[in-house]
Amino acid sequence: MTDRSGPGTPGQRPSPAGMRYQPSGDAPAYQEAPRKPPRILAVDDEEGSRRVLQRALTSFGYDVTLAHDGDDALGKLGSDIDLIVLDASMPTVDGFTVAEHIRTMPGYFDLPIIMVTGLDAKANRLRALEVGVNDFISKPFDLAELRLRSGWLLKLKEAHDTIKRHRAELEDTVRKRTAALQQALVEVESAQQQTHEAHLDTIRRLVLAAEHKDRATAAHIERIGLFCELLAERLQLPSEQVALIRHGSQMHDVGKLGIPDQILLKPGSLDGSEWEIMKQHARMGSRILSGSPSDILRVGESIALTHHERWDGEGYPRGLAAEGIPLEGRICAVADVFDALTTDRPYRQSLPNAAVYEMMRAERDQHFDPQVLDTFLGCREEIESIQRAYGVNPGGAGATENRKPN
After folding, report:
1. Are 392 and 340 in contact (CB under 8 A)?
2. Most buried by CB count within 10 Å: which residue of 96, 180, 277, 382?
């Protein structure tokens, strides 16, 4: 028997158009998805012309919708229309006006329009181009010409639609990924904030352990931090540095963990040897906080070591002077002396603010950095607001007793 299968694998029929090769056996068949025919809106006020257009366009494989005038065409225009074949000369609303209106409608700026016209004047064609017509066919139209002109415009629209679809998909992908990235950033920021808060809480508990030995309170820690924050802000330091000084200053006396209770809690004056031991809390605090990668702990280390230095160089532990003392140490020195004098201690009662202000003013250029002290004295209202919020009466009075050896 003669093989009539033609070229290719013996016994296998050639794949028809639109089909891919389907091998025998269990291999899956691959077919292109059926494509919907292009949908054409044909607009003409003459019944006979509409029918001719319908037959011609249908013979090209198009799905045709007819409209008898401009208003009817605008009413039937939808997103599923791929091409408009529009008569130029119609009563009431002509084709030029219809085309111009369509171009103003959202989503139809690039919808292909072919104008069917018997008007050969150059002015009419220029006007058609101005209102957004893509191509022309003269009446009576040639079937082959209509096929070619409609075909290339439909291919152009298909390319435009593909680009718009890809753009929309890309925008959607970017939007989703941006939202995912933003969510991830929020989660990272939240985790960082929780870590930061846990870090601060650990520092605060360490400070409370030290202050508990000295019978101080959490309120004392908060006051020192807020006084230092206020000073740093008024000195116009960067916000990051202000925050570091606020939290770092709360660790200024952490070295008291290493001071024996009989010295730390002694109700009277310290003798010479006791005072030398007490002064060691500055170095002890610095050692406790040293070697950390944390910016807060590094600032805390500096403050712990230097908050008892004096502007005139007579302080401890290193005898630094003037601007040789780190600014954070100079700031904490003012805040610490003020809070110490305005609150009760085991060795004396508190003094009223007015008396403390004058005592500290007398130490300007000696104990205290003059600029820092002047700044502090210039914000008394805020200082006293902090005191009231944390249990201190700015007008409180009591006797003073110097802690240094007689």
Report:
1. no
2. 96
